[in-house]
Amino acid sequence: MDFVTALTIFVLAMFAGFEVITKVPPILHTPLMSGANAISGITIVGALLAAGAKNEKLSMALGFLAVVFATINVVGGFAVTHRMLEMFRRRDRD
Amino acid sequence: MSETLTQALVNLAYVIAASLFILGLKGLSHPRTAVRGNLLGATGMLIAVVVTLLDRHIVGFELIIAGFVIGAAVGATLAVKIPMTAMPQLVALFNGFGGAASALVAGAALIDPVLQPPTGVTLQFGVATVLSGLIGAVTFWGSLVAFGKLQGLIEEKPVLLPGRHAINALLLLGALAVGALLVRDVESVGLYWGVVALASLLGVLLVIPIGGADMPVVISLLNSYSGLAAAATGFVLGNNALIISGSLVGAAGLILTNLMCKAMNRSLPNVLFGGVGAATTASTREQEDIYAGRVKSTSPEEVAMLLEGARRVAIIPGYGMAVAQAQYPVRDLYQLLEQRGVEVYFAIHPVAGRMPGHMNVLLAEVDIPYDKLKGLEESNALLPETDVALVVGANDVVNPKARDVNDPSNPIAGMPILEADKAKVVVIIKRSLSPGFAGIPNPLFAADNALMLFADARKALTEIVNALKEL
User: Fold this and answer.
1) How far apart are CA B46 and CA B287, in angstroms?
2) Strand, helix or coil at B459?
3) Which residues of B are annotated as catalytic?
4) Of the given ranges (B54-58, B127-131, B450-454), which has the lowest mean pLDDT?
5) Under a CB-based contact definition with an 8 Å cutoff, are residues B401 and B412 in contact?
6) Distance from CA of residue B361 to its chain's centroid?
7) Does one domain contain both B272 and B326?
8) Where are the domains of chain A?
9) Predicted TM-score (pTM) of this structure
10) How many CA atoms lie within 13 Å of A80's alpha carbon, on the beta-carbon side?
11) Which of B119-123, B201-205, B321-325, B453-457 has the lowest mean pLDDT?
């Protein structure tokens, strides 16, 4: 992918992010942070490639560490966000 | 299947994953749709992971499975066990892990040709790798310091080193210089770790001078950095999913950072470099002038009677409520008053607590309906029509001194406050008259319509609840 294409995607996604996230009400700002945080765990995609391609020992080791960190981020992030959002929803069902 | 077709399908799956992330964040615009939104995001992540595992370059799964097992066990345990009061430090920690993962992947990409662009290493690859290592390491170490401060492992007050601005500038320039050398010669992997080492030190030194009450800004900013690190890694790998997701998170963090700064009427540089909260500036004489002979103290019984006779009550929580674990008696008080036909709402300042939305999460946990949680503007419209405003563990966010914008020494000049003083009666539950984070006395405590209840918040509220039951 050439640089300009990548930059275009980056800039447009930034705008999409601003549009969507300004609509999140303040009462949900904590789940927004933890949920966004889980999404930033997308780095796991690169970590998997590094850990699974058996080329270089060092890059495999780095990839393994990255898989651990990113999985904590993804699993922990989505789970704790779910836990919080359930609390906000609970009263609705009463 | 041909190589190009497979790659096209993989990229298609990444677009679906990215779309699900956007829809997921969109779901967070209302508590009713938020749970589904979060699940959409998690589904997107699952799709991205599964598709990546099908990549033909992945030939060994031992390390991947081991990483999954360890990461999922740690992540799930933390997510389930963490008390809601400790949410700020957990989010700080997760931010840090995201940054670390991005920096590690960029490091691996320098070594392993599988992660490099098929056309060979380009200038984009080199620059993005340096940025990924720089931002990732700053995020990781900055987040660890924030975690330590929030968890009480290290001094929460600002630690101000002499010449810290010069040191930080030198560290940043040094990291960029080493990075430039790496861009010229990407074979020298050692240089990458040089960048990471300098950035790590920078991350620590950037957060050490920031005080506890400014943590909402710091966590928001680190949240943004963790996204930008992922986006930079996306530029390294030429991967759309990383670029899109990273920029979404980057945007989220920037929006929150901006909101938090506005809620304190301070600029981001002032929060980051001002060292606010380092010293208690209020002199005893200054306090004497404001408080002497004017502060009236009250008892739980008297407060119970005030509340009993009120039609509308505002509860204004602050970080002190979280520290005292007073959200449980707050809930009891809320329920008791609602049963007796008193209208109760919670007036919540954006920077109350240690992270954006902190108070809302604590109150949601104890079953306060979300439509009772009011923001700054809505609360200030209601407060003049409110019979009793009960301040629980908040200080600077209700300090009317913020209106005094002409005093150059006023650290909270122009800060938007919850106008508790406009209520008919204000009851402040506080152990002493000690100043809040800003280090200045609070004239509200001496106001004609203010009553101080000197006690621990949890104990005081329990006593008020008991007194109410006997009325």
Assistant:
1) 58
2) helix
3) 396
4) B54-58
5) yes
6) 12
7) no
8) 26-87
9) 0.92
10) 38
11) B119-123
Residues of B in contact with A87 (CB under 8 A): 361, 364-365
A59: which chain B residues are within 8 Å (Cβ-Cβ)? 107-109, 111-112, 115
Question: Which residues of chain A does B190 touch, with a Cβ-Cβ cutoff of 8 Å?
Answer: none
Whether residue B90 lies inside any domain: the answer is no
Is the ipTM of this structure higher than 0.90? yes
Task: For B382-430, write each residue's pLDDT tens digit.
Answer: 999 999 999 999 999 999 999 999 888 888 999 999 999 999 999 999 9
Mean pLDDT, rounded, for B1-17:
86
Residues B294 and B436 in one domain: yes
Model confidence at A92, in pLDDT bands (50, 70, 90)?
low
From the list A34, A47, A50, the residue facing B94 with the nearest CB is A34
With an 8 Å Cβ cutoff, is B193 touching chain A? Answer: no
Q: Assess B30–A contact: CB distance below 8 Å, yes or no.
A: yes
DSSP-derived letter for residue A72 is: I
DSSP β-ladder status, B425-430 and B450-454 = parallel
Please tell me whether residues B148 and B241 are part of one structural domain.
yes
**pLDDT value at residue B464:** 97
Cα B436 to Cα A16, A68, B328, distances in angstroms = 39, 40, 23
Q: CB–CB of A62 and B104 under 8 A?
A: yes
User: Percent helix, strand and coil across chain B, each rounded to 5?
Assistant: 65, 5, 30
SS3 letters for B18-86?
Answer: HHHHHHHHHHCCCHHHHHHHHHHHHHHHHHHHHHHHCCCCCCCCHHHHHHHHHHHHHHHHHHHHCCHHH
Encode pLDDT of B62-84 as tens digits. Answer: 999 999 999 999 999 999 999 99
Residues B99 and B159 in one domain: yes
Residues in chain B: 471
- Contact (Cβ atoms closer than 8 angstroms) between residue B201 and residue B214: no
Answer yes or no: are the C-beta atoms of B257 and A33 closer than 8 Å: no
Q: How many CB pairs under 8 A join A and B?
A: 397
Q: pLDDT (tens digit, 9 = 90+) per residue, B105-118? A: 999 999 998 888 87
What total of structural domains would you count in chain B?
A: 3
